[in-house]
TrEMBL record:
<feature type="domain" description="O-methyltransferase dimerisation">
    <location>
        <begin position="9"/>
        <end position="73"/>
    </location>
</feature>
<dbReference type="InterPro" id="IPR016461">
    <property type="entry name" value="COMT-like"/>
</dbReference>
<dbReference type="InterPro" id="IPR036388">
    <property type="entry name" value="WH-like_DNA-bd_sf"/>
</dbReference>
<protein>
    <submittedName>
        <fullName>Methyltransferase</fullName>
    </submittedName>
</protein>
<dbReference type="InterPro" id="IPR029063">
    <property type="entry name" value="SAM-dependent_MTases_sf"/>
</dbReference>
<dbReference type="Pfam" id="PF08100">
    <property type="entry name" value="Dimerisation"/>
</dbReference>
<feature type="domain" description="O-methyltransferase C-terminal">
    <location>
        <begin position="107"/>
        <end position="316"/>
    </location>
</feature>
<keyword id="KW-0808">Transferase</keyword>
<keyword id="KW-0489">Methyltransferase</keyword>
<keyword id="KW-0949">S-adenosyl-L-methionine</keyword>
<dbReference type="GO" id="GO:0008168">
    <property type="term" value="F:methyltransferase activity"/>
</dbReference>
<dbReference type="InterPro" id="IPR036390">
    <property type="entry name" value="WH_DNA-bd_sf"/>
</dbReference>
<dbReference type="InterPro" id="IPR001077">
    <property type="entry name" value="COMT_C"/>
</dbReference>
<dbReference type="GO" id="GO:0032259">
    <property type="term" value="P:methylation"/>
</dbReference>
<dbReference type="Pfam" id="PF00891">
    <property type="entry name" value="Methyltransf_2"/>
</dbReference>
<dbReference type="InterPro" id="IPR012967">
    <property type="entry name" value="COMT_dimerisation"/>
</dbReference>
Length: 339
């Protein structure tokens, strides 16, 4: 790929995202199903015109989500199967959420956020992201579903990556619908759990616990981790929470975990860890996530040194950082009370 090709592909990136969004909204993968189908048939079922549908399907094939099986006939590629909400590992809610205009609009003001350090979302919508979510129940439910889908890969890996068996009770701080904790509890039958989140964040959690048969081993606590976290656990799990917030607020969350921590307890942080410098093979998605934190919520992705600083300020010592190759870009950071 030439330098020119690279730049053109990057500029077309937003168009590719909207193409995927259209595929989800039109239920393209569901309509094609498991066997190749002519574009005209897909168009008919979608209530669309045949020629524009063919153009959309060819663009999706060019993106690697479909295959043009024969002229004008399309089949679903493995990556495209993730756009079917009925299939395991589906990312349909994730796609809807991160192509939602209320997410992408603030990106139009990235340069302003870079100049000022201010959160563009707040200026565009007149309030912060999470308050906006609370006012929009449908969007909040979509966000919860997107976070659940984004967590499934880590949930499959985490129980094998850490010895939860030496603990009695784990609290998932900001644990949403309980997807992550359910995977841990299923793998460690002697463990009990608590999911802490806002009432909106916990809305789908009872269903998750029932599906996994864990309602009797896991309690749900509606609360605010900026105020406190429930006492009584010897392990506090914090996944994809700290990066939503600037340093002072991230320290507040960790400080509350430290205050609740018994002797021998641990805080387990699950987040991407940026290298000190971007390598030639660096994953751009983590750096784009960093900018998303800047424009939409005011948080940031962090290096190991950054996490050490957060932990130190919260009265914790960072003991280890373990990359999770099967759940890239996440790493597992274990912290304990500082001496």
């Amino acid at each position: 790929m030439t330098d020119r090709d690279l730049l053109v592909r990057l500029v077309f990136g937003s168009m590719a995202a909207q193409t995927v969004r259209a595929a989800v909204r039109l239920r393209i993968v569901e309509l094609i199903g498991d066997t190749p189908r002519p574009a005209a048939d897909v168009a008919n079922d979608a209530g669309a015109e045949p020629q524009p549908m063919t153009r959309l399907l060819r663009a999706l094939a060019g993106l690697g989500l479909l295959r043009e099986h024969s002229f004008g006939t399309f089949a679903v590629a493995p990556a495209g199967a993730l756009l079917d909400p009925a299939r395991p590992g589906s990312l349909t809610s994730f796609v809807r959420m991160f192509t939602e205009p209320e997410i992408t609009r603030a990106w139009e003001h990235l340069d302003d956020s870079v100049r000022t350090g201010d959160v563009a979302f707040d200026a565009v919508f007149g309030t912060d992201f999470f308050t906006h979510l609370a006012r929009r129940p449908e969007l909040s439910a979509e966000f919860n579903a997107a976070m659940s889908q984004a967590t499934e890969e880590a949930a499959a890996v985490l129980p094998r990556a850490f010895d939860f068996g030496r603990f009695g009770t784990v609290t998932d701080v900001g644990g949403g619908d309980g997807t992550l904790l359910a995977a841990v509890l299923a793998a460690f039958p002697g463990l009990k759990g608590v999911v802490l989140d806002t009432a909106d964040g916990l809305a789908q959690a009872p269903g998750t616990l029932r599906r996994h048969g864990l309602a009797d081993r896991c309690s749900l606590v509606a609360g605010d981790f900026f105020h406190s976290v429930p006492k009584g656990s010897d392990l506090y799990l914090v996944k994809s929470i700290l990066h939503d917030w600037p340093d002072d607020r991230a320290v507040t969350i960790l400080r509350h975990c430290r205050a609740a921590l018994p002797s021998g307890g641990r805080v387990l942080i699950l987040e991407p860890v940026l290298p000190e410098a971007v390598g030639a093979d660096g994953d751009a998605s983590t750096y784009l996530s960093d900018l998303n934190m800047l424009v939409n919520v005011g948080g940031r992705e962090r290096t190991r040194r950054d996490f050490e600083d957060l932990c130190r300020a919260a009265g914790l010592a960072l003991l280890s950082v373990t990359p999770l190759p099967e759940a890239e870009p996440f790493s597992l950071l274990e912290a304990a009370a500082a001496d």
